[in-house]
Amino acid sequence: MSTRKGGSVAPRPPGSPSPSDTTEPQGLLIGGSWVRTDRTFDVTNAFDGERVATISAATADHVTAAVSAADASLALDFPLHARYDVLMRAADRIEASQDEYAWAIAREGSKTIREARREPPRAASILRQSAEEGRRLHGETLPFDSRAGSENRVGYYFRFPIGVIAAITPFNDPLAVLAHKVGPAIATGNAVVLKPASATPLSALRFARDLMASGLPDGRLNVVTGSGSELGDALVSDPRVRMVTFTGGVRTGEHIARTAGLKKLSMELGSNSPVIVMPDADLDRAVPAIASGAFAQAGQNCLGVQRILIHDRVYDAFARRLADHVAGLTAGSSMDERVDVCAMISAAQATRVESWVQQAVELGARILAGGKREGAVVWPTIVEHVPRGARLDCDEVYGPVVVLARVSSLDEAIDRANAVNYGLHAAIFTASLADAFTAVQRLMVGAVIVNDSTDYRLDVMPFGGTKSSGIGREGIQFACAEMTQTRVVCFNLQK
Ligand code: NAD
User: Fold this and answer.
1) In terms of DSSP bridges, do strands 341-342 and 377-378 run parallel, antiparallel, or are they unpaired?
2) What is the pLDDT of residue 494?
3) How far is the CA of 367 from the centre of ligand 1 (A)?
4) What's the CATH fold of domain 13-269+470-487?
5) What angle do CA 445, 451, 457 make, to 5 degrees?
6) Domain 273-458 class?
7) What's the mean pLDDT when you consider all of the chain?
8) Which atom of ligand 1 approaches the CA of 252 most closely?
9) 0.85 exceeded by the pTM?
10) Among 32, 295, 366, 468, which residue's CB has the most CB atoms within a 10 Å radius?
């Protein structure tokens, strides 16, 4: 495995942010106005420490003003056809400036430039699909005559918007995750106060600018940037906020659930996803798929592969081939076109991951590949013989580290896969339909992926987890349903 510091670097596209650039929307968005604040914070690139932008930091008062603007915007008419048109136009705008978005994502976040290029088209597609889904939302007539005494009643139900929705997003897919929240929320007639991760506000501010330029009425989308621990309580506890849609870590999710009070919660949290490799697995397919699922985005992916449960009969062959594959990966700057594994979001996170690997080694684990850190870069790491109960075995490492474990049967693999407090995605590589269906029936997760890694998601899938991995489901159709509430109309026709 190699590292690169120079070479084929993605050029800065025209219009992309730079430290001296003041044309970027770097204030807060409240009621349609860009608001600059005295207090600011820097967005920096984790690999080289370069300041990418300086952003306004909101206070709790700004949050309250943003919620007021969102609430007030709901009083003004914004019919479905207008919402459809805005989302479609915004999708076109995002696509038209996809290079600038990708550049910003790779600089501010923790994705290689090649990974970052996949986000803008995906976000545009999510907005288009949300616009279409808004058109499909409908109520139904109700069978009132199913109860004796109600024969003379007729009626139906509508779906109405929930109202003001707080959307809080993480750094790892800084554009796609917020598109998954804002697209369905706007399509179904809600108003949003968005709090992006403080590490990655640039793509969120561009996204907001593109929605406003597409004709979104003032107040329907507000953006408050700054520290989550400073702003979070004011946002989620405001009684005018009727739903909190959160994607992030379990501890933050638990804090929000305690603070929010009586309102709807959608929680997309973490995991330490398992992949089972059976003796009849096609290793030519399994090895690259699992490596990609484990090390893309430097392992900072809620769907990332963490635990590989390999049948004894193929353990040695699989381990050797995975180590060979990893030896061909390149670690380094997110802006280098040839880099496969970029810096983690911060040196502090990289140091944490390193300490978890060290803990496992002290408890008897063996490093098969990687195990090295320099600044915020952690080399793709494979560890085996990790004892049960080590952090790498039961917590979410959220870094480029995988654990190999030897199992002697499918039952044992499933028991180990389920023996954690997470359950987002799980995967199995096998040629046996019977084994695949056994896994589908017994794995306690939100999705079982057969013959691919856990890192697979289609944006229309119901998406979410069991146990500490979350509450509720995203995915366009499901988010639209969650972001509306029914209202029944019942006519009593009796004279
Ligand atoms: P995080 O929990 O640290 O931060 C997420 C967001 O919450 C950020 O915007 C942050 O500013 C905000 N926040 C922090 N403290 C807050 C508070 N007290 N009140 C309100 N908001 C607060 O998570 P992260 O480090 O940005 O992301 C990593 C985590 O996100 C991982 O656990 C990962 O698995 C999870 N994740 C889950 C999914 C999913 O769909 N299930 C997708 C991506 C990431």
Assistant:
1) unpaired
2) 78
3) 29
4) Aldehyde Dehydrogenase; Chain A, domain 1 (3.40.605)
5) 55
6) alpha beta
7) 95
8) 2
9) yes
10) 295
